[in-house]
Write a structure and sequence with these properties.
CATH superfamily of the largest domain: Phosphoglycerate mutase-like
Radius of gyration: 18 Å
CATH architecture of the largest domain: 3-Layer(aba) Sandwich
Helix content: 40-55%
Order of helices and strands: EHEHEHHHHEHHEE
């Protein structure tokens, strides 16, 4: 029956003018993934990809690396529903209403006051996780913010399209982002929204999550795998 292989894009350019592009490190991660798959003899029958630059860039580099070794890879099919949630809108919302959430306000102030790069990264991650958990709980409702039900709905619609469009046999690869990857994985594993979001916080850049597709359904074979990366290239942001 083949496998469903979900890939989070390589490291993006966080805290720059254009987050939605691969960093130099992200490009290296993608090349190593392509090399790893080539060495393993992976034969891809279908490729699907989200519309964002960092998603497309990852797919392009991986495919190019495999084709350099003579392995033919199908052209990606782009699906709008595989784009990431606009987390910056969610976090901007909590910045506007921080008085209602004292702990969020404390983290915002601590981030601004810190001059230590590592400390700022830790504070930002805690702020981000708290904000996203509030969003899942329905605490970030605004006209310009996609709700968790809307996000989940369009990602699962994309998954249905993938499962109906992929070739009946062979491996299907999906290049997307942390949110859609874990929404799809959580759905296949029967997880609720909170448990699914907790997986999102741990998903590494250019990681591989793999399901075996058998007659009884989808069975998890590996989650958040970065075995193709050296330690210095294993990143979350």
């Amino acid at each position: 029956m083949g496998r469903l292989i979900l890939v989070r894009h390589g490291q993006a350019s966080a805290f720059t003018d254009d987050y939605d592009r691969l960093s130099e490190k992200g490009g290296r991660q993608a090349r190593l993934l392509g090399k790893w798959w080539t060495e393993r003899g992976l034969r891809i029958s279908s490729v699907f990809c989200g519309p964002l630059k960092r998603q497309k860039g990852t797919a392009e580099i991986v495919i190019k690396e495999m084709e350099r070794s003579g392995i033919r890879v199908p052209d990606p099919v782009f699906i709008e529903g595989l784009k990431e949630i606009e987390a910056d809108r969610i976090m901007a919302h909590f910045d506007r209403v921080k008085a209602e959430y004292p702990e969020m306000d404390r983290l915002i102030r601590a981030y601004g006051e810190s001059n230590d790069h590592q400390e700022r990264g830790t504070i930002f991650q805690e702020y981000f996780e708290r904000g996203m958990l509030l969003w899942v709980s329905g605490k970030a409702e605004a006209p310009d913010i996609e709700s968790i039900s809307e996000f989940r709905g369009r990602v699962l619609e994309a998954l249905e399209t993938i499962m109906c469009s992929r070739r009946a046999s062979g491996d299907t690869v999906v290049f997307s982002s942390a949110g859609p990857v874990t929404i799809m994985a959580g759905h296949l594993l029967g997880l609720d929204s909170i448990k699914t979001l907790e997986l999102t916080f741990r998903l590494r850049n250019c990681s591989v999550t793999e399901f075996a597709l058998i007659s009884r359904g989808a069975v998890l074979q590996q989650f958040n795998c970065t075995g193709h990366l050296p330690a210095d290239l294993v990143t979350i942001r």
